[in-house]
Amino acid sequence: MKLSLDDLDHKILQILEEDGRAPAKFIAEKLSVNEVTVSKRLAKIIDGGFCKIIAIADFEKCGYDYLLPIGIRVQGDKLEEVAEFLSQQKEVFSVNVVSGIQDIEILCATQSLDETKVFLDETLPSIVGIKSIAPAIASNVYKFETDWTPFANEA
């Protein structure tokens, strides 16, 4: 049986988007429902895989001064191998196989210019299967959200 979220579930999620540590009692009071109802709904939401409650670090406050969007072209049939290897790198926090000029796009964060230089000049070129890289450094971040998933259209 396929689970779906209803209006109450969405209201619970909206509160958690504002404060991921909001206790069930607080949510229940805010929505004028029973605390047990909120607890059961939270279990359904989490167990159903609709969301998970996690802490998200602010990369700038954690000392990562450089945000690097990088396009990568891959040789022949090495796409999966390169994507898997990139996923293991400590600087990389997003790996996407894409269509277009690039084969893979990654998003990285580094703490210093020296770390950035090593990653771009040594780490990436040493990965077997990478044909070329198109690095950039984000000079000004206007929007960086991690809570962008639209729950209204869940599958």
Structure description:
- With 155 residues, this protein is α+β, with helices and mostly antiparallel strands.
- The chain has two domains: 7-47, Arc Repressor Mutant, subunit A, CATH 1.10.10; 66-135, Lrp/AsnC effector binding domain/regulation of amino acid metabolism (RAM) domain (Alpha-Beta Plaits), CATH 3.30.70.920.
- The chain contains five helices and four strands, in the order αααβαββαβ.
- It has a four-stranded antiparallel sheet with strand order 2-3-1-4.
- A hairpin with a 6-residue loop joins β2 and β3.
- α2 (24-31) packs across α3 (35-47).
- The radius of gyration is 20 Å and the shape is elongated.
- The two termini are 13 Å apart.
- The relative contact order is 0.16.
- The model is unreliable at 151-155 (pLDDT under 50).
Report how far apart the termini are: 13 Å
User: N-to-C SSE series?
Assistant: HHHEHEEHE
Number of spatially distinct domains: 2
CATH third-level topology of the largest domain: Alpha-Beta Plaits
In what order do the strands lie side by side in the largest sheet?
2-3-1-4
Calculate Rg over CA atoms: 20 Å
CATH superfamily of the largest domain: Lrp/AsnC effector binding domain/regulation of amino acid metabolism (RAM) domain
